[in-house]
Structure prediction request, 237 residues.
Amino acid sequence: MSVLLLKLAAPLQSWGVASRFARRDTQQYPSKSGVLGLIAAAQGRRRTDPIEDQLVGLAFGVRIDQPGTLIRDFQTAVSLDGRTQYPLSQRYYLADAVFVAAIEGDPTLLHAIRDALSRPEFPLYLGRRSCPVTEPLTLGEPQDRRLSEALKDPSTWQAATWYKRKQPATVHLPIFRDQTPEDTPDVLTDRVRDVPISFDPVRREYGWRTVITDHTRVENLLGRVHNHDPFAAFGGA
Prediction:
């Protein structure tokens, strides 16, 4: 198996997995359904096309390199004739966030996905249509390594320079990935309903998956060094 790394960065992102009615939330990290939908759009698949042939079988994980800021947008809508006022909606976004997502699968499939993301058939968005992709998505060629190993590699930290300068000398980056048979029973897990079964607008369907919570440590060469002097409050000698 091989791993392809993706950089998900833009002014705005929104990865909803439990939005209802007039409130559209965002998860703190990209959803599996959102990233697989992005890949399907790059390949030119319609929403009514099946995806269980190859995409759903890909292992998935994501690392939060720069968490961003949660913002809320109030939206109103009126019919074209001005007679109908639609309910006020609240939509949540992540501003200035940066994530590294990893997909693991057959090397031939991953090379095809990389090519599709470089020359997409349809416009690509980070969760919603109001969040277009603004940077190249792929981080190099597929690598012959495991997904968990690739996400723990500190050399792939993609945070912005201004953000790194505000962080301490050692940074811990959260990782959320698919559970594997090799994981021990004592690992921290969660259940998330973001495995796409159908993107058909008439009847969208999603399944459950078990997510492992992990982290990796990065030595931040641009970070602030905190040297505590217990006698500083008494003034210099």
About this structure: The two ends are 62 Å apart (CA to CA). Strands lie at 2-13, 23-24, 59-66, 69-75, 89-105, 170-178, 189-198, 205-219.
